[in-house]
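In the previous chapter we treated chains in isolation. Here, by contrast, the input contains two separate entities that must be folded as one system, with a combined length of 215 residues.
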Amino acid sequence: MKSWISFLMPDDEYKEKKMLYFLAEGAVLLFLFLVIMIICSNFISLDTGVILLAGIAIFLFYILGRYTLSGIEYTDIATEKEYKRALRALKSRTASFVVLFGIGYLVYTMASNEANWYDFFGMVISVGIISFLLEFISLKKSYKKNKELL
Amino acid sequence: MRNNVKITRVKTSMTQQQLAKNVGVTRQTIGLIEKGEYNPTLSLCIAIAKELEKTLDELFWEVED
């Protein structure tokens, strides 16, 4: 089945089906959130910018959370050896990401004259930890799921 | 959906990884099909049947004992 969103979908049909479910669930949640916000706006004044950002956050975090917990990211990790190798690769990938993010963030803060070392290290360390944890949970879930399917 | 994919694959000494690669899906998808936790599309059923040199009936048709 062809659709304009096909280019975003994985080639594997099971993974594709799961992703479509996550996107559809996220869209329904976003719709409900917006309906509730429209109703609430009749009684209280709401900041449009905040509501729009919250809507985007709900949609993205829901899909990211479902994807991470579903164990469909690392489809070929099924043995202890493969798991340890993937974990090592994950650690080096996270380290590279943190370094690149740090450089990018440093350039941005220096360009905007808002350089503050506490903010800088806080941001870089937080992003590194969150990125590692999300990938680690996904890897662990995938490994557990794949092990049961052998 | 119960099926005979796993038995047939093991008989032909093919690994999940090999079958997955030959039919263009992931090893996880093959594992889920073998366990009956995912119902594949007809085109994937045909690809698996061709790869294992069996008919769709032999792999996917449930016969009551």
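Chain A touches chain B at residues 11-15, 72, 75-76, 78, 142, 145-146, 149-150 (CB under 8 Å). Chain A is about 75% helix and 0% strand. Compare these points with the single-chain example from earlier in the chapter.
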